[in-house]
User: Fold Enoyl-[acyl-carrier-protein] reductase [NADH] from Undibacterium oligocarboniphilum.
Amino acid sequence: MKPESLFSLAGKRGVIIGLANAHSIAYGCAVVAHALGAQMVLSCLNDKALQFVAPLAEQLQSPLLVCDVEKEGELERLIQFAADRMGKIDFLIHSVAWAPLTDLHGRVLDSSAQGFLQAMNISCHSFARAARLCEPHLAPGASLMTMSYLGADEAVAHYGLMGPVKAALESLVRYLAVEMGPAGTRVHAISPGPVPTRAASGLQEFDALMEKAKTNAPLKRLVTLPEIGQLAAFLISDAASGMTGQTLYVDGGYHIVN
Ligand code: NAD
Assistant:
C-alpha cells in the first residue's frame, strides 16, 4: 500500500527521536509521516550515528539533531529547536531503548541496580521528560507515542530486563494520558512484533523469536517498518482524536494467540 493513499498529515509538525539507520522503527515512522505531508525534526544518538542518519534526514527534508537523552541539556535543546522551528508541536515519536548487555543477557534476578536504572532512565523516563518538555509547545489534539513490546505483558524468553522496563513504559503512558488528557493531548504506546533492527540484535536468540512470531501470528508473517509507521501516522491523525492511553499492537495478531 502506498502511504500517500492513507490520509493526509499535512500541517502536522512533530519530533521523532531514535533514528539509528534505515532499519530503525523511528525511520519507518518518519518515512510514512513524511509521505503523508508531516513536517518533522529528527534526532540520532551521537556524532557517530550522524553519518548513517544524515542521508536519511536529507531524503526526508528534515533537520537532524544529535540527542543523547542521558546527556544534560540535549533533550531540552532538541525540543526547543523543534518548537522554535515549527512554532507548535503536533506529535512526538519516542523510539529509544537501551540496556547494558551484561544486565540484558543475564537473569532479571541478577540485574545490577545501575544497569536497571540506566535502562529505565533511557528507555522509559526519557519519554516522560520529552512529553514534559513538549507540553508548553503542544498544538491542540497533539499525539505523543512511544514503542513498547509484548515482553511488557508476558515473560518473553531472553527479553530479560527490558520486560519490566517496557511494563513501566506502558504504565507511564496511562498516567501521562490521564495527566495530559484535559489539555487535549493524547498518549499511546505502539507495540510492534519483532523486526530486525540494531536494538533487536542485542537480544539473545532474536532469530528464534522472529521465527516463532512468523509461524504463530495469525497473519503468518512479520510486520514491516511501513506498517508500524502507518499505525503511528493514524495515531497522529485527527482520525484517532477519540483515543488515548492505549497500547496498540502491530504484530500480525501474535499477541492474541501466544
Ligand atoms: P534501533 O536500534 O534502530 O533504535 C533504538 C534507538 O535508541 C537508536 O536510535 C539508539 O541510538 C537510541 N538510543 C539508545 N540509547 C539512547 C540514548 N541514551 N539517547 C538517545 N537515543 C538512544 O532499534 P528499534 O528496534 O528501531 O528500537 C526502537 C524502539 O522500538 C525501542 O524502544 C525498542 O524497544 C522498540 N521495539 C523494537 C522491536 C523490534 O523488534 N525491533 C519490537 C518492539 C519494540
